[in-house]
C-alpha cells in the first residue's frame, strides 16, 4: 500500500467513527496530508525514504506540533497554537512519518480513565460504553480504531500502559531520560516520559528507535545507545520475576489470566520464573501523588491568563483543580518541604528495591491494571481511581522501562500484561514483549 492509499484509508475510518469515539481533537486538512503523502511516496520510489515512511501517526495533545492546537484537552489552552515542534515530532518528520492529527486525552494528563477531557470522554473502540483508560486515551483509541499505525503518548504514572491495556494495543513507557521531553507540556517533570503505542510490538519498537536518545534541549535526556530492531526475536534464557501482588487489590480473574500467560510463555521458551517482592510497593500511589501535586502546581503557574491561555484556576476541571489546590497546600512554607521530601525518600527506596531484584531477574511481570474498566460516567471515588495505577506507578518512581502487551480478554474486555526491565534495557524489554506477543 502506498502512503497516499494508507492515509486515505485512515481518513475514511476517522470520518466514519471519530464522531463517536472522540479519539482525535484535530485532524490536518486532507489536501495537506495527501500532498505530504505523495512526497513520501516519491522518496520511497527513489530509495531515499526515512524509517517511518508509510506510517501514519497520531500525537497526544500535550506534545507541541508547530501550528497545531496543543490544548492538553483543557479550556485553558483551547486557543493555543504551538509555536515550535517538540524534539520527538522533529525526529518523526526527519524519518518521514506522517502526522495525521492530535489525540484527545485526560485534561493536562491528570487522569486514568479518559473521562476528564474538556472536550468529552474518549470511547473505547472495543466497546463504546466503556472507558478507554488514560491519560493517553485518544492515542490508544486511535490505534485500536485503525485511525493510524502508531501514536505518541506520555506516561507519568501509567498513562501509556493503562489505556493500551484497556484498548487492546501495545504501549511502552521508556526509561526516564530515554526520550527528550522538550516540547512536552509537564504534568510532573521528574516522572514524565513520552513513549509509543501501536497495534504490535514491532511498530512500538520502530517508533521508539526514532524518538529516543540524547537531546541538548532536555538536560535529563541520555544517550542510551542504538536499538537493534533485528534482534527483537532473540529473547533467550530469560529469568522472569513474577511480582508479589499481595495487598494490592488485584482482581482474581485478572491475576489468573496473567499467571496462565506467564506460565505458558515461560515454559514454551524454556525460561525460569521466580517470585519477586518489591518491599513497600503498596506505598507507591501515596508517594506518587505528593510529587505530582507539587510539580504540577509549580508547572501550572505559567497558566496565569496573561502569557498562555486562560487562568487555570478559572476554567480547569475538578481533577486539575484538586491537584493545584493540593500542590499549593503541600508547598506552603510552614511545611518546610516535609511532604515532598518524604516522598522523594520513598521514591529512592522503591528504586533501590527494583535495582536489587534486577540482579537476579531480567524482567518483572504483573498485570497492567488491578481491575477491569468501568462504564463511562460511572461514579468512581478518587481513591479507587488513583488505585488504577497501583501497578504502573512503581516503574515511574524507579525510572525503569515498562510495556503493556495484550494477552487475552475477560468478558470481551482486553487485558494487558506489564513487563518491566531495569533502566535503559529497552532492547531486552522489547524482546521479551515480542515473545509474549
Ligand atoms: N493516573 C495518573 C495520574 O493521574 C497517571 C497520569 C499519567 O501518567 N500522565 O497522575
3D architecture notes:
- There is one protein chain.
- By secondary structure, the protein is α/β, with parallel strands linked by helices.
- The chain has a single domain (1-278, 356-437), classed as Amidase signature (AS) enzymes.
- Helices cover 38% and strands 15% of the residues.
- The chain contains 14 helices and eleven strands.
- It has helices spanning 3-21, 30-46, 87-94, 137-144, 161-167, 201-211, 252-269, 284-299, 312-315, 318-330, 338-357, 382-387, 393-398, 426-436, and strands at 24-27, 56-60, 98-103, 150-155, 170-173, 193-198, 239-243, 272-276, 363-367, 401-410, 413-421.
- An eleven-stranded mixed sheet has the order 1-3-2-4-6-5-10-11-9-7-8, sandwiched between helices.
- β10 (401-410) and β11 (413-421) form a beta hairpin.
- α1 (3-21) runs antiparallel to α2.
- It is globular.
- The two termini are 25 Å apart.
- The structure holds glutamine.
List keywords for this structure.
alpha/beta, Amidase signature (AS) enzymes, 11-stranded mixed sheet, 11 strands, binds glutamine
Amino acid at each position: 500500500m502506498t502512503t497516499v492509499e494508507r492515509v486515505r484509508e485512515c481518513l475514511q475510518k476517522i470520518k466514519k467513527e471519530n464522531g463517536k469515539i472522540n479519539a482525535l481533537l484535530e485532524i490536518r486538512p486532507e489536501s495537506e496530508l495527501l500532498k505530504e503523502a505523495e512526497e513520501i511516496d516519491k522518496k520511497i520510489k527513489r530509495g531515499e525514504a526515512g524509517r517511518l515512511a508509510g506510517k501514519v501517526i497520531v500525537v497526544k495533545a500535550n506534545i507541541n506540533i508547530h501550528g497545531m492546537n496543543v490544548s492538553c484537552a483543557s479550556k485553558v489552552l483551547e486557543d493555543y497554537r504551538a509555536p515550535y515542534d517538540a524534539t520527538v515530532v522533529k525526529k518523526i518528520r526527519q524519518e518521514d512519518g506522517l502526522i495525521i492529527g492530535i489525540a484527545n486525552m485526560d485534561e493536562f494528563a491528570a487522569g486514568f480513565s479518559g473521562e476528564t477531557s474538556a472536550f468529552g470522554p474518549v470511547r473505547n473502540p472495543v466497546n463504546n460504553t466503556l472507558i478507554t483508560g488514560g491519560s493517553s486515551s485518544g492515542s490508544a483509541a486511535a490505534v485500536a480504531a485503525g485511525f493510524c499505525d502508531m501514536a505518541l503518548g506520555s506516561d507519568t504514572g501509567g498513562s501509556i500502559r493503562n489505556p493500551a491495556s484497556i484498548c487492546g494495543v501495545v504501549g511502552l513507557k521508556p526509561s526516564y531520560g530515554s526520550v527528550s521531553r522538550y516540547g512536552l507540556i509537564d504534568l510532573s517533570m521528574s516522572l514524565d516520559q513520552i513513549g509509543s503505542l501501536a497495534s504490535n510490538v514491532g511498530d512500538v519498537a520502530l517508533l521508539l528507535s526514532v524518538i529516543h536518545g540524547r537531546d541538548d534541549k532536555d538536560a535529563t535526556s541520555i544517550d542510551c545507545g542504538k536499538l537493534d530492531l533485528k534482534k527483537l526475536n532473540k529473547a533467550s534464557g530469560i529469568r522472569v520475576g513474577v511480582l508479589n501482588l499481595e495487598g494490592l487489590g488485584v482482581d482474581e480473574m485478572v491475576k489468573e489470566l496473567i499467571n496462565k500467560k506467564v506460565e505458558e510463555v515461560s515454559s514454551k521458551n524454556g525460561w525460569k520464573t521466580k517470585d519477586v517482592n518489591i518491599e513497600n510497593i503498596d506505598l507507591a500511589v501515596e508517594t506518587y501523588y505528593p510529587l505530582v501535586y507539587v510539580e504540577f502546581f509549580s508547572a501550572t503557574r505559567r497558566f496565569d491568563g496573561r502569557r498562555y491561555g486562560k487562568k487555570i484556576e478559572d476554567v480547569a476541571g475538578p481533577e486539575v483543580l484538586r491537584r493545584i489546590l493540593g500542590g499549593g497546600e503541600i508547598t506552603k512554607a510552614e511545611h518546610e518541604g516535609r511532604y515532598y521530601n518524604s516522598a522523594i525518600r520513598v521514591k529512592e527506596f522503591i528504586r533501590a528495591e527494583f535495582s536489587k531484584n534486577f540482579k537476579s531477574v531480567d524482567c518483572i511481570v504483573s498485570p497492567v491494571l488491578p481491575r477491569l474498566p468501568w462504564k463511562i460516567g460511572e461514579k468512581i471515588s478518587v481513591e479507587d481511581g488513583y488505585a488504577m495505577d497501583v501497578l504502573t506507578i512503581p516503574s515511574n518512581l524507579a525510572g525503569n522501562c515498562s510495556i503493556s502487551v495484550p494477552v487475552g480478554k475477560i468478558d470481551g474486555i482486553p487485558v494487558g500484561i506489564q513487563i518491566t526491565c531495569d533502566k535503559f534495557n529497552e532492547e531486552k524489554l522489547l524482546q521479551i514483549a515480542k515473545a509474549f506477543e
